[in-house]
Specification:
- Helix content is about 30%, strand content about 20%.
- With about 475 residues, it is of the alpha/beta class.
């Protein structure tokens, strides 16, 4: 009886071993043999690396991303929390001041949980789970330098290897190439080299600068349960300044301060707490007075919102997809990057559950499907940042201003009403589309007005303040 050859699994190359690349690899692994290409040497544990310079700053995964990570990488959330991370309840575990200056009440209803930990820990856990799958292989010190193929199909990637030794170039072939290389993606140049037109782009740059410093958690706050503190900037006043205090693993606080053009924080350690005290509310600066700094201040200015509309291109080659920050990067202050990356992974898996990876049109379907979470986060970020001077080449339109007034009213309502707050969180967490803002849960209390006056100050409890010096 003749032997029947086993059907060979499709192959995929993922450029970049950051969170977006790892989550894409997790989604692909059920449908293909995956090779992840990374120009760095990946660390064994939760350590910073050159390819993720933003890892030192505060990161948050909204509940829409938490659900997606748990689905794509079973066991990852449990490992993060076992190693000191936390699933924080929104809003019980968060003290937040909205852009208009109103403090949000810490309602205890709802099921929104945000993942709070250092970026280094999250990336380490994702690497442990994804790269240890039998279907996934990682190639360190491998830099993608171009695409192989033509207008109709991408067939592989030209790579440069060699580390500290002589550089060598070679070609790796695959049925699908995924660019998850981040903000520095060269996909636009690679595609025009194949003969495709330039991709449409839009940039909205509020001119935001970040400054971050680590602190040892003071008093008994390291025992767990101390709230996140978020003082948001007001986009109607320039410069916009804000800050976030994030209790993370290792008995530490990650504190990130931000400011737009003319009001940027600096790397001067002596200026860090004074800057925090000068925000719309001095709470973060006051909390830091008794905390011990761990290391220097780290700064960055790579915070512009930039989107490349690959899904709108009339012709799209088979075998190629662009995901994560390579497709759209956001102002980090909105904390949507990781959530979008995870939801893009879910979109990839859903497409491949109904279409063969090698079928005509699959790459286009992948690019279109992943544009949905990208667009939701984009609209939220740009709707705020477009109001900062110099953010765009054209001033906000009358429609933009009308939408902004609606959002301001919605935020003020959500600060004092639990049902309205739940609707806001559904949208901000990317769990539900923006249409949720027009539900009765939000519109009715908006029309009826507040039943109680707004909070006069931050809702930090007495026992939480006592723990700062206990």
């Amino acid at each position: 009886m003749p032997q029947i050859a086993a059907r060979q699994r499709p192959t995929a190359l993922v450029i970049g071993a950051g969170a977006a690349g790892l989550l894409a690899a997790a989604a692909l692994a059920d449908h293909a043999d995956v090779t992840v290409l990374e120009r760095d040497v990946l660390p064994d544990g939760p350590e910073p690396r050159r390819g993720v310079p933003q890892s030192r700053h505060a990161h948050l995964v909204w509940s829409g991303g938490v659900a997606a990570i748990g689905d794509l990488v079973p066991g990852a959330l449990e490992e993060v929390t076992a190693r000191g991370g936390r699933l924080a309840h929104a809003m019980r575990d968060i003290v937040t001041r909205g852009p208009s200056g109103v403090w949000f009440r810490r309602f205890t209803h709802g099921d929104h949980r945000s993942l709070v930990c250092s970026r280094d820990l999250l990336d380490s856990v994702l690497r442990n789970h994804v790269l240890n799958r039998a279907e996934v292989t990682a190639r360190h010190e491998t830099t993608a330098v171009g695409l192989e193929g033509d207008l109709g199909r991408v067939t592989g990637v030209r790579v440069r290897t060699g580390g500290n030794g002589p550089a060598e170039e070679s070609v790796l072939h695959a049925d699908l190439v995924v660019d998850a290389s981040g903000r520095g993606s060269r996909a636009p140049r690679w595609l025009t080299a194949l003969g495709l037109p330039e991709v449409a782009e839009r940039s909205v740059n509020a001119g935001l600068a970040y400054a971050t410093r680590l602190y040892r958690a003071p008093g008994t706050t390291a025992a767990g349960g101390f709230p996140l503190v978020n003082v948001q900037a007001d986009p109607t006043r320039s410069p916009g300044q804000g800050g976030i205090l994030l209790p993370v693993e290792g008995d530490r606080w990650i504190v990130t301060l931000s400011g737009t053009r003319g009001g940027e924080p600096t790397a001067d350690p002596e200026a860090f707490i004074p800057f925090a005290l000068g925000l719309g509310d001095p709470l973060i600066g006051e909390l830091l007075k008794g905390a011990e700094p761990l290391g220097d201040v780290v700064t960055t200015r790579s915070t512009a919102n930039r989107r490349r509309y690959y899904e709108r291109m009339r012709h799209w080659p088979e075998g190629f997809v662009v995901l994560g920050d390579a497709a759209a990067g956001y102002n980090p202050v909105y904390a949507h990057g990781l959530t979008v990356a995870a939801q893009c992974g879910i979109a990839v898996r859903e497409v491949l559950d109904r279409l063969p990876l090698t079928a005509p049109g699959t790459a286009k379907a992948l690019q279109t499907s992943t544009a949905r979470p990208v667009g939701a986060a984009w609209d939220l970020a740009v709707g705020q940042d477009a109001f900062y001077p110099g953010a765009t080449g054209t001033p906000p339109t009358a429609a933009d201003r009308l939408r902004a007034r609606f959002v301001d009213r919605a935020l003020a309502t959500g600060a004092n009403n639990p049902r309205a707050q739940a609707a806001l969180l559904d949208v901000m967490s990317l769990r539900k589309p923006p249409g949720r803002l027009f539900s009765p849960d939000l519109l009715v209390p908006m029309l009826l007005g507040p039943k109680r006056p707004p909070l006069g100050g931050p809702p930090l409890r007495d026992d939480e303040r006592e723990r700062l010096t206990a």
